[in-house]
């Protein structure tokens, strides 16, 4: 059983706060198991988007872990990130969107191995 999305998001935002990074929930999704999308705004017009990793990455022995994968190797224009998020919400209305602002692009996420 995985940790509820709402609890994971609250813990993630607290982690960001302790590192001095501003973050907020832009869209609240399904409390129990909504997919979580993380946008890192670099404050220069560019951003990174991290999406949930495929289910095959998960290990049932560690239900609190969530893994993410970036949609691109390099930052992209924020408008492109917003377009992608709009499509994701149309596809999955239960999804969460969390946005942080950090010029260095720190994300504090567990990334899936490629």
UniProtKB/TrEMBL annotation:
Organism superkingdom: Bacteria
In terms of InterPro entries, this protein maps to: DUF1491 (IPR009964)
* Gene3D superfamilies, per the entry: Protein of unknown function (DUF1491)
Q: What is this protein called?
A: DUF1491 domain-containing protein
Please tell me the species this chain comes from.
Answer: Bradyrhizobium erythrophlei
């Amino acid at each position: 059983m995985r940790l509820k999305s709402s609890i994971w998001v609250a813990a993630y935002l607290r982690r960001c706060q302790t590192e001095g990074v501003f973050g907020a929930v832009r869209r609240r999704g399904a409390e129990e198991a909504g997919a979580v999308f993380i946008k890192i705004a670099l404050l220069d017009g560019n951003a990174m988007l991290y999406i949930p990793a495929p289910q095959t990455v998960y290990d049932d022995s560690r239900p609190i872990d969530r893994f993410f994968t970036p949609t691109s190797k390099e930052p992209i224009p924020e408008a492109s990130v917003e377009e992608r998020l709009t499509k994701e919400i149309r596809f999955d209305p239960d999804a969460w969107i969390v946005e942080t602002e950090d010029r260095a692009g720190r994300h504090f996420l567990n990334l899936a191995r490629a």
